[in-house]
């Protein structure tokens, strides 16, 4: 069973930066696609950024140019560098690990990010 533990959330002023980390247990990290999702109050969970097992990245239009996703396979970790934060980035951010074709899909418990105006 894979466990994902997020950290790095908090309260920041608009224009500030935060770096989220997600540490994964287990031995499948190197073949997993990793993603960061977020869910604001009253809204559906949405994909923010993803990085494939071979390093390809994609971003939602709302964060493109401000957020950067990266991974360190040696540390079984994925990161989300968030710059130029806006109040609308306020949400609970979740780390996701999945292996397509094997039905493996795991979620972390989430970390709160609050951006004040």
Structure description:
The chain is mainly β. Helices cover about 0% and strands about 55% of the residues. The chain has no helices and eleven strands. A hairpin with a 4-residue loop joins β9 and β10. The radius of gyration is 14 Å and the shape is globular. The model has no long low-confidence stretch (mean pLDDT about 95). The strands form two sheets. Strands 2, 4, 5, 6, 9, 10 and 11 form a seven-stranded mixed beta sheet that branches.
Give a quick precis of the structure.
The chain is 0% helix and 53% strand.
Topology:
Elements lengths: L3 E4 L2 E4 L4 E7 L8 E7 L6 E6 L5 E3 L7 E6 L4 E6 L8 E9 L4 E4 L3 E6 L1
Parallel strand pairs: 2-11
Antiparallel strand pairs: 1-3, 3-8, 4-5, 4-9, 5-6, 7-8, 9-10, 9-11
Order of helices and strands: EEEEEEEEEEE
Q: Largest sheet at a glance?
A: 7 strands, mixed
Task: Tell me the structural class.
Answer: mainly beta
Mean pLDDT, all residues:
96
Residue share in β-strands:
over 45%
- Low-confidence region ranges: none
> How many DSSP H or I helices?
0
**Number of E strands:** 11
Spatial gap, N to C terminus: 40 Å
User: What is the helical fraction, as a range of percent?
Assistant: under 10%
Keywords:
single chain, 117 residues, mainly beta, seven-stranded mixed sheet, four-stranded antiparallel sheet, 11 strands, 53% strand
């Amino acid at each position: 069973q894979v466990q994902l533990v997020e950290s790095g959330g908090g309260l920041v002023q608009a224009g500030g930066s935060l770096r989220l980390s997600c540490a994964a247990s287990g031995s499948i990290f190197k073949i997993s696609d990793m993603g960061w999702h977020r869910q604001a109050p009253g809204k559906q969970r949405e994909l923010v950024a993803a990085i494939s097992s071979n390093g390809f990245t994609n971003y939602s239009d709302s964060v493109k140019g401000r957020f950067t996703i990266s991974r360190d396979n040696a540390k079984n970790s994925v990161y989300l560098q968030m710059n130029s934060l806006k109040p609308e980035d306020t949400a609970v951010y979740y780390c996701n690990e999945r292996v397509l074709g094997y039905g493996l899909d795991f979620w972390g418990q989430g970390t709160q990010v609050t951006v004040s105006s």
